[in-house]
Batch of 2 targets.
Target 1
Amino acid sequence: MSNDTKNVSRRDFVKGAATGLVAGAFAGMGMYSYSPWAYERLPKTERKMHDFGTCRSVRVTNISETSWFNNAHLIGDIHEAGGLLVNQYTLNWAPFANGKGSAQGSYDDGISSIKDLLPHDIEKAWEIQKKLALHPENPGGYSCLIEVEELDGTMHKYLLDTGWSYKWMNDCFKREGIDQMLRDQEIEALFISHEHWDHFWGLPVTMKYDNRIPLYVHDGFYDEGLQYIKDSGYKGELTIANKPVTPIIPGMALLKFDVPIINRVFGETSLAFNIKDKGLVLISGCCHQGILKFADFAYANLKYDNDKFYGIYGGLHISPFEDWDPKYDDLVISLGQWGFERIGCNHCTGHLTAKKFIESGYPVVRGTARFRSASKDYLGNGDKITFGC
Amino acid sequence: MDTSSFSYLESRKLVKRWSGPIPALINTFLILAFFYLTWWIFQDPRGLMRMYTPYVGYMVCRWMLIIFIWLAYIFDFWPFKRTWLNKTHPLIKGAVLTIVSVAAMILLIKGFFVEILGNFGIAYFNPDRLIAMGITDFYSIEYAAEAIMMFAAIASWLSPSWVVACENAPWQKIGQPARGITIVLVTFFFSMVVYFVTMHSHMAILFYPWQKFTAICPPYWEQFANTVSGNFHIAWIMCCTVVVWQFETIWERYPFNLIKHDTLRRVASFFGIIIIALALCFFLFYAQDLVWGQTIRGTRRLMAPDWRWLHVGEMAIFWLVPTLYLNFYCGNWPTKFSRPVNVCIRTIVTALLAVVVYVIYYKTSHLFLGTQKGFSHPQQFPMIPMIWLINIFLMNVWFMDGWPGWKAVPKTEEELAEVHEEIVASDVKWTPGIAKGLVIGLLVGLALYTAVIYLLPWIGANFTIIK
C-alpha cells in the first residue's frame, strides 16, 4: 500500500472517528439517560436516622396567620417597585419607610425615624412609620405559639416568628396572652423562620415584653436583618443556625434549609417534632423549601416513631398571592402519598390550595375564620391544633 | 457574480480590523460593557426600568431574539436595501435595525397578542382580561407575559429551523418580502400548533378548575415527565433552539449536509435537530438527578421535576453562549482540520466552556445582576441574562458587521460560489476508512458518555458551586 493511500485511509479513519465520537455521545444521551435502567443505578437514600428524642404532644396556637390584608395592595407595591427580586428593605413598607415612594426606601432611613422608640414605645414608632409607608394599613403578620409536652409531662413554650405590624401583632399577642407569657419569661425561645417582612419585622413587639428571649435565625440573614435585631433592643443570646439539624429539647429540632426566596431573602428554618407513638410533625413559617422537601429531608436525616409522617402545621407556601401554577398541582396530586394524618395549614398556603386539598380528600383541619382570617378552609387566627394526646 | 441571489449575511465577509486577538478582546469588552449598561437600564431589579419581574423581561428578551432572527435570517433585512446595508456605518445600522426590531416587537406583543388574541381569542394573553377575572394586576401581567414569551420560545426554534434545516424550501427562489412573509406566516402557524399542544394546557391550569372552564386536554405528558408543568416542553424546545444554532454554526450543518437529495437532506436536518435536542434534553435532566438526587414530585425548586425540566433549557442556553462566541468572535476555531474533526473539537470545547460559564454564572451573578444566589429561585431565570447577551452578540454581528473589531467586505466570486457549493458537502465520502473510524468513534463516544455519568455523582458529592 502506498503512503498516499495510507494517509488517505488514516484521514478517513479520523474523520469517521470524530463523527462517531460526537454521534456516540449523543446516542448514549438519548438512549440511556431517561431510561428505567439509568434510574436503577441511582443510589437509594442513605438514612442517617438521627435520634433527636421523643415528646408526648405539640399544641400550636395560631397567633396570626394574616400577614397582610389586601393582596392587591401588597403585590401591587412589589410590582411597582420592580417585581419579586427587589430588595424588601427598599419597598418602602413600614417599619423601614422614608416617605420617598416606591422602591426608594432604605433600612437606614426607616430605622433612624423610630430607633429611639424601640422597643419600649412601639405604638408611637408604628404611628410614625404609618405616615411614611406605602399602604400602612395592610401589614398584619405571622406568628404562632408552640407548646411542647415532654414525656415526663414538662411543658415548654416557644414562639415561631413575630409578625410584621407592631400594632396588629401587639393586639394579637394580647388576645392570646402572649404578652404576659413573655413578661413572665414562660416562652423559652423565639425562632425566626426567615427574614421576610411578615415574619420578622414585628420583632420589637416581642422585644417589648422580653428582650432577652433566646433567639434563633438562619445564617442567610442579611446585614440589615442582623442590625435590626440589635436596633430592636435585643439583649439576649442570638443563635445563628448554621447546621442542618439543631436539637432543641428531646423530640424537637430546628432544621435549616438554604433556599433563595423572593425579595432578596435567603434561607428558612423550620421545626420538626417526634411525637411518641404517632410520628413526625413538621411546623413551618412559610416553608419556602417546599413541604415535601421538608419531609424528604426529615426522612433522610431523622429517626421518628413509627417511621411515619404524622402532621403538618404552618404556611406551606403554595399560592401566597392566590396565584397559581401547574407545579402547585403536582403537590396537590402527590401529597396524599406521604400519608400525613393531620394537615393544619394557613397563611401562604393560599385559600385555593386549601380548597384543592379538601377536594382531594386530605385531612385538612378546618378553622373558625375569626379575627380577620378569611376562610374556614384552614386554621385561622386564634385557632389551635394539637398533635399527640 | 450577482449578489442579489445571496442573503446579505452570505454576501459579506467579516474581516478583522487588527491582527491577532485584539478584535475579539475589544468586541468582548464592549459587548460586556453594553450588556451591563443595558441590563441596568432595562432588566436589573435595582436599575431603571426593572423589567426582570421576571416574566416581562423574559418576554422582551425572547421576542427581541425572534425579531432579530426574522429580520436578518428570514426577511434578509427587508425593507432595507442592500446598498444601504453595504454603505451605512455599522453604528447607525445597528441603531436603526435595533430600533425597528423593538418597534416590531412592541407592535406584535401589544397589537397582536394582547389586543387581538387576548381580546377576541384567549383571555390569558391580555392582562386586562385577567384583572377583570379577579387576578391581581401583577400576576395578570406576569401570566400574559409568560404566555406571550412561550410563543416566542417555540418560534425561536421553528423559524431558524426553516432557514437552517429546510433551506427556505419551497420558497427559496422567490424574492423579498414574499419569501419572508411566507416563511414567517408558516413558522408562526406551526409555532401556534406547537404552542397549543405544549403550552396551552400549562397556561390554562392557572385557572381553577382547569379542565372545566378552559376546555383543555389534561397534560398528556404527566406520567412521562412526572409533572403537569409545561416546563417539560420548555426543556426540549430550548434544546431544539440551541441545537439549531449549533448545527448552523459550529457544526457547519454537518453531517446532514452530506445528503445530496434536497428533500431528504432538509427533512433529515429538521428532524435530526429534534432528535439530537431530545437526546441532549434527557441527558441534562439525568445529569441533574445524578448530581442532586432524584426528584420529588410536588416539592418546590431544586428537587422538583418541573424545575429540573426548566433547568434543562437553562443549561442548554449556557451552551449556546460559547457556541455563538466561538463562531462569531473566534473565527469558528478550529478550522485547520477536516470538517468532522473541527466539528468534534468545537463541540467538546464549547461544552466545556458552557460548564465554565455555568459555574461562573452561579458563583458570581448575584454579585452584579441584582439577582440572588441559589440555583432554583422561583423568580429567577438565567435564560434572561444569557439571551440578553446573545441578543447583543446578534446585534453586533448581524446588524453591525462585528464593529469595531471587524468590518464587512463583499465576498469574491469564488467565495460566493463556495456558498452555493457548501449546501452539499463533498469533503467527506463513504470509504472503508470512514466506516472503521465511525465504529470506533461511536464506541469512544459511548465510553465518554459513560465516563461522564459515572463522574457526575462524584462531582455532586465533592464540589459545591454555591456556598
Target 2
Amino acid sequence: MDISTRKSQTTEGDGPPATGTAHGTPDATRPDPAPRDEPAPGSAATPDTTPDATPDTAPAPVKPAPRPGATATAPGTATRRGDRVFLGLSRGSGILLLAVMAAIAVFLSYRAALAISEDRANFLTTFEWDPNSPEPVFGIAVLAFGTVVSSVIAMAVAVPVAVAIALFLTHYAPRRLSGPIAYVVDLLAAVPSIVYGLWGALVLVPHMNGLFGWLDTYLGWTGILAWQGGAPRSMLTVGILLAIMILPVITNVSREVFRQVPRAHEEAALALGATRWEVIRMSVLPFGRSGVISASMLGLGRALGETMAVATVLSPSFDIQASLLDPGGGTFAQNIASKFGEANEQGRDALIASGLVLFVITLLVNGAARLIIARRKEYSGANA
Amino acid sequence: MSTTSTLARPGSLQGARLPQWAPWAVAVTAVAVAVAVGLAAGLHSRVQWGLMAAVLFVLGTYALSAKVEGRRQAKDRVATSLVWVAFLLAVVPLLSLVWETVVRGVKVLDGYFLTHSMGTVADAEPGGGIYHAILGTAQQVGLATLIAAPIGVLTAIYLVEYGRGPLAKAVTFFVDVMTGIPSIVAGLFILSLMLMFDLQPFGFAGSLALAILMMPVVVRSTEEMLKLVPNELREASLALGVPRWRTILKVVLPTAIGGITTGVMLAIARIAGESAPVLLLVFGNPFINANPFEGAQASLPLYIYQQYVNSAGSTAAYDRAWAAALTLIAFVMVLNLVARGIARWKTPR
C-alpha cells in the first residue's frame, strides 16, 4: 500500500501538467470516499472508466487526492458484469483463505476436544503418552518441554551467528564475494528439511561425540551438560541441527534489514570518527533491531514446527532428561510423526490435540513477529 | 562516542596503526601455537585445534591492537574477526551438507534408479529405485499447484487491485500468519477431515495439505510483483475505457507474469520437499500407484524418511536415501535457479 501511495503521488506530481486541459488523469483529482472493496453500485459517475471525463477535474492539481489510487479502482459498477464476476472471484479467494484458517482452528479443536474428553489424566501435566488403550492416558508436558528446549538452543546458537553473517554480507565481505554468498544462502534456505534430517542423522550425529565428550569432561558438573555415553541423539544435537536449518532464514531477513540502513546514518557516524564496529553499534544495529527480532521469531516459528529433521535425529523417549546430552525427550511435531504409524483413531485424535497446541504456539509467535514487522512495511520476511 | 582518546593526542590527526600484514602475522602465530599445543597435549580432534587457533587469534589481535592503536580500534578488530569467525563457522555445516549429499548420493543414482520402483525389494537389500516416488511427488505437487496457484494469484489481485478495508487487512494478516503454519499442522487438519469422513490415505489428501502450505507463499510473492506494476499502465488502460477486469487480465498480469511465475515456482520448490503432511496423509507405498485419488502413494521426501527409518543400519537403504535426497535437492535447486533466472529476465520496469 505504501508503494501504490508513493506511485500515485508521483503521478499526481507530473501528470496534470503534461496532459494539459484535455483529459486530466481523473484519479489524481477526483476524491472517492467509497471504500475500494465495496461494490458501491450507487456510484453512477464512473469517470475513471469513461474516456470523456469531465474536463473540470483537470485544472485542480493543487488539491491533493485524499487516497491516491482509490479512484482508479472504483470496482464493480452495475453496468460491468465482467467486473463484478472478477471482483467476486478474487474476493472469494481471499475469503476462502480466511475460511481455511478458520477451518483449521475449528476442526483441530473439535478433534482435540474429543480426545481430551477421553483422557484419564491431565492433558497439560501428564508425563505419559498412551492414547491407544481403552483407558487412554496422555499429556503434553514432555513435548512442551522438549519443544521449548530444542528451540531455545537453536535460537541461542543461530541468532548471533545469523546476525554476524548478515553483518558480514552487508558490511565486511568484499563486494565481489558478498553477492554470490548471499545467493547461496538464499538457495540453502530452500533445502528440504528431510535432507537436513538425513544429514543430521548420518553426518552430524557421529561428529557430535567429540563435542559431547568435551562438554561432559569440563562442564559435566553443571548437571545439564553431563553425558552418560549414549548415542548423541539428544536435545542438544537437535537444537544445533535446528540452528543450522534456520540460519539461512534469519540471515536472509536480517541482511535485507541491514541493507536498508540509511547511508547517511552510517556516514554521519564515520564522519565523527567512529570505527566500523562503532558504526554498526550506533547506526546499523539500532535501525535493524526490530527487523532482527522478527527474523528471529520467524526462525523460531520454523524451529518449533520442524518435524522430519527432529524425527530422524532424536532418539525419543517419553521423559524429561535432566541433561541436554542424554538421549530422550520429544517435541510436538516429532511425536506426531513418530507415533502416527501405531495410532488408532483415538490415538490420532490425541496427536491432533497435541498438534493444536503446536498450532496455537506458532500462531502466537508468528503473529507477534508480523506485528513487529508491520510497523515497518518496507521489508517483509514472507519470502524468506 | 567519546572523543577524548583522539583529543588526547594533540598534534596528530591519526593515531598509530598496525601495519597491513599484522592480522596475517597474528593468524599464522595463532595457528602455529594451536598446532603445537594440540600436538603436545595429544589432542586428536582437528576441530579442537581450529577452535584453539580461533580463540588465540581473537585474543592476540585484541592485545596487540589495544597496545598499539588503543581500545576502540582493538574492539573494532575483535568485532571484525568475530564476524569472520561466525561466517566461517556457519559455512562448514552448510558446505558439508551439500558435499555429503552429492558424494554419497551419486553412488546409486543412475538410470535404473530413476526408472524403477521399490516393488518387491526389501528395505535392507540393494536395488530398487524411486520412480514411484517421483511419480507420486509430481502428481501431488502438480495437483496442489493447480489448487493453490489460482487461488493465491486471485487473492493477491484482490489485495492489490481492490483491497481496502477490514477484509483486506484481515486477509493480509492471516496470509502472513499462514506462512508460518508448521507443515505437520496442515497435515493434521486434512487428517481430521479424513477421520470425519472415514477415508484411507490417498495422494490428493496430501495435495490439499500442500496447497494450504503453498497458498500464502504464492499470495505474498504475487502481491509484491503486482505492486511493482506502474500505476500509469493501469490508468492508461482505464482511460481508454477498458473495463477494470480486462485491464487486470490484459495489462497488469502480463506485465507481472515473470515475477508471478517465479513466485509460483519458488512455492513449488518449497512444498516439493515437505514430508510431514505426506507422511500423515499419503502414507507411502513401495509400488507404483499412478492414481492420486485412490490408495496410498509414495513421495520423494517421504521415501527418504522411510528408507532411513525402516532399515536401521543397512547401507543399501542409506545409499538409496542419499540418492533420493540428491535427486530432491537437484530438483529444488533447478526450480530455484530457473525461477530466479525468469525473475531477472522479466523484471517489470
